[in-house]
Amino acid sequence: MVIGSAMSLQFGSAVAATLFPRAGALGVVALRLVFSALLMLAVCRPRLRGHSRTDWAAVTGLGVALGTMNTLFYQAIDRIPLGAAVTLELLGPLVLSVVGSRRLLSLLWAGLALAGVYLLGSSGFGSIDFAGAAFALAAGAMWVAYILFNSRTGARFPKADGLALAMALAALLSAPLGVASAGRALLDPVTLGLGAAVAVLSSGVPYTLELFALRRLPAATFALLMSLMPVAAASAGFLVLGQRLELPELVAIALVIVASMGAVRTPPAARTRGAGPPVP
């Protein structure tokens, strides 16, 4: 289920990239978020009343993180190969895991990740747009914000209600940008149909599979499997977009994946009551 979720998400991103000539990156982001919001609101039917300001603050943070993360990521895959974009984006959660662990072993995973990025840059960035790489790294930073706000929202709302509300907010934020960028192109039936397919592949199917998977897998195992996301992205980029990665770039992706898995498997340092900051 986790692997199916990753493949669905990345193939959805690949299909989204084929829509860029029709509606542009901002237009496709708007279509994905609007259709995803409608889908989640219809399924979850969240209540709007009875929530505190703190609840709405968490939802707002999650909605802004969702909208910004998707916008930055689609700007990235409009400029660089999908596999490279997801590899760079993965650095955000990886940094969060390394910082949260506070163990000496975490420096090894950080070193592997940096080696992978260096190898990816020295081998592939000669033909890769630097702005695209910057967008991917920024999307990774927003992925960290998404993780933090998603945790807060999940603790304050039942089921996926908070996520549905956050998705609606993200759609409201992205829609004006999409309309301003793509205009009437968003009303094309083919574009609308593919936009709906992207929403299902990138949101509906992954969220459903992950929901069922988390009922059967420990959270650490789930996070470990999600580290394989760049493999799914590279596969989708090759099969759908015809994007080929050379051997050094594949090794770079492998290094980042190993670093991510290692960071997930490294337990955080134990805190001693009454002591100062933990020592690695």
Which radius of gyration do the C-alpha atoms yield?
19 Å
Percent of residues in beta strands?
under 5%
Number of helices in the DSSP assignment: 10
Report the mean per-residue pLDDT as an integer.
85
Q: Given the helix and strand composition, which structural class is it?
A: mainly alpha
Described by the principal axes of the CA atoms, the overall outline is globular
Measure the end-to-end span: 35 Å
Number of domains: 1
Order of secondary-structure elements: HHHHHHHHHH
Fold and architecture overview:
By secondary structure, the protein is mostly helical. It has one domain (1-265). It has helices spanning 2-44, 53-77, 82-101, 105-124, 130-156, 161-182, 189-214, 219-226, 229-241, 247-265. Helix 1 (2-44) crosses helix 2. It starts with a helix and ends in a 15-residue tail after the last helix.
Write a compact overview of the structure shown.
It is found in: Cell membrane. This protein is mainly alpha-helical and 280 residues long.
Which SSEs are present, and which pair or pack?
Layout: H1 2-44, H2 53-77, H3 82-101, H4 105-124, H5 130-156, H6 161-182, H7 189-214, H8 219-226, H9 229-241, H10 247-265
